[in-house]
Amino acid sequence: MKNILRIIAISQPLYKILAILATLILTSSSLQLVAPILSKYIVDEILLKIQNQGGDINKLIILVSSAFGISLLALTVTVISERLGDHFEGRLRKFLTEKFYDKALTLPQSYYDSEISGKIINQLSRGIHTIHTFLNTASNFILPTFIQSIFTIGILAIYSWPIAVFMAILFPIYLSISYYSTVKWGAREVKKNEIEDSLRGRIHEVISSMRLVKGFGAEKREFSTVEQNLTEINKIYAKQSRDFHIYDFYRGLSLNIILFLVNMVVFYNAFQGLLTIGEMVLILQLVNMARIPLFAMSFILTNIQRAESGSKEYFELLDLSSTEDYKQKISPEVLKEPTIEFKDVVFGYEDSETVLDSISFKMGKREKVALVGHSGAGKTTIVNLILKFYEPQSGEIFLNDKNFKSLPHQLIRNNISLVYQENELFSSTIRENVAYGKNNALEKEIISALKLANAYSFVSQLPRGLDSKVGERGVKLSGGQKQRIQIARAILKNAPILILDEATSSLDARSEKEVQDALENLMKNKLVIIIAHRFSTIQNVDKIIVLDGGKIVDYGNPKELSLKKGIYSELLHYQVEGNRKLLESFEIY
């Protein structure tokens, strides 16, 4: 019941609406008990007339009119409660989604390094659905059912205590069987959820990487994986269904036995004249109404168990430690001529060896600094630390001589523009993608940025211009076009620090030339940090930091390092030699 208590606690901002809703539903449920009582007096009045023992037509009219008035009042209360219920449902869904999304935005990057996005989304969807269903159940059934059950047994006791005892016995028997049924169901539901999360995550990956799947002819293998997972889910569900129906049989059997005993007592007492016909009708109606709370309690227990298991991952995410506060108010400070310094920085990712080992360097004002080294040397890790995606395990990082630890994430990132190797674009319009770093950008500013990025010529030829959608991850654009959109975004943001992460590594020669020209416009008067394998992109940098095995093994300008034996000259030689052989093969060299 731990998660159920948390569900109740987490919904505290909605308590007021929930209380009003519960009161309305309770009122409606109570009004429904009045009708059987009035029917008893109506039947008795009719029998008095039939038996020539009196009977008052005026009293009969009042009773019938009262029954109609109460039913009309119950209808009105029900309509109001249902409308309020719809309002509560919308508020609840909004509240739960915002709470989950707010937490997701404050989690460290390390969490997303080890989780599949499709799995996270599935957990969000299931968590919200189960919590929403439980709270709806709580407001619509739990309190009204509890009160209605007490009232029903209380009224039955007035007319026949044996019948009240039978019905009182039925409730714990029925609930006990339902409890054991839902516990078994819930235990298997956890296992089923684990498989389903993995399955949904895989489907999300396959759909987002469909070119890879089709390119390697892996459709049959991927379909087989999904089929096997669905088969396993169905096997678990079959066991759940089997147990549920077995316990449902026992529930039904206990109900039928008790109802048989109740009917025997009612009909015998009516036959013996111990009960009037009106009282018999009242008791039978109350007994029939008591079945509704019983069925509701079974439904409630099932939903409680589903909420307990279904909200497990939702609360696991909420329990994770937040490392960022994007709502923190910071001054919109633009750093003037920023510098970055690493002092004896040591860092390693979770469950991995040390990636950076006692790294120290300084990037000066308006310098263009390149990070060079074999794959896995630590270049991207340095960039991740500069962006404060991670914290160093030891050592210190400084921005303009201020310790990173004392600087808000937002302040640091507001002063950095990014151009990634991978095409980090949203599926929305070119306008939205370019203005992503500056929400209030004017159209003329967006166009100016596109022109500086050598992108406006192709954008203006698109059917809807700036409002053309680029597709998921920019799939409707070529590699060079996507990179130039990224560059336009960085130009528009105009941050004093620029990070280029392999910005031209995946482009053909012509696209690389167009992107390089755009980058020249972007890099003016900025501190520029470049990760590059193609040395053509760093021939004009001020400094090169050469990394190997998480250590700085060389440091200098391109000319110095090209003449010095080491990793830089070795990599440069490979590229030059490769280009020379290519030219020789075409008899151009």
Overview of the molecule:
By secondary structure, this protein is of the alpha/beta class. The chain has a domain at 88-318: ABC transporter type 1, transmembrane domain (ABC transporter transmembrane region fold). Helices cover 64% and strands 10% of the residues. It has 19 helices and ten strands. A six-stranded mixed β-sheet has the order 6-7-8-3-9-10, sandwiched between helices. It has a four-stranded antiparallel β-sheet with strand order 2-1-4-5, covered by helices on one side. Strand 9 and strand 10 form a beta hairpin. Helix 3 packs antiparallel against helix 5 (117-159), helix 6 packs parallel to helix 9 (277-310) and helix 16 packs parallel to helix 17. The longest helix is centred in the middle third of the chain and has 53 residues, at 219-271.
Describe the biggest sheet?
6 strands, mixed
Could you report the average pLDDT, rounded to the nearest whole number? 79
Strand content: 5-15%
- Side-by-side strand order of the widest sheet: 6-7-8-3-9-10
Subcellular location: Cell membrane
GO molecular function, one term: ABC-type transporter activity
InterPro entries: AAA+_ATPase, ABC1_TM_dom, ABC1_TM_sf, ABC_transporter-like_ATP-bd, ABC_transporter-like_CS, P-loop_NTPase, Type_1_exporter
Main location: membrane
Secondary structure blueprint with pairings:
Blueprint: H1 2-10, H2 15-50, H3 57-106, H4 109-113, H5 117-159, H6 161-208, H7 210-215, H8 219-271, H9 277-310, H10 312-318, E1 340-347, E2 356-363, E3 368-373, H11 379-386, E4 394-399, E5 402-403, H12 409-414, E6 416-419, H13 430-434, H14 443-452, H15 456-459, H16 479-493, E7 497-501, H17 509-522, E8 527-531, E9 543-548, E10 551-556, H18 558-562, H19 567-585
Parallel strand pairs: 3-8, 3-9, 6-7, 7-8
Antiparallel strand pairs: 1-2, 1-4, 4-5, 9-10
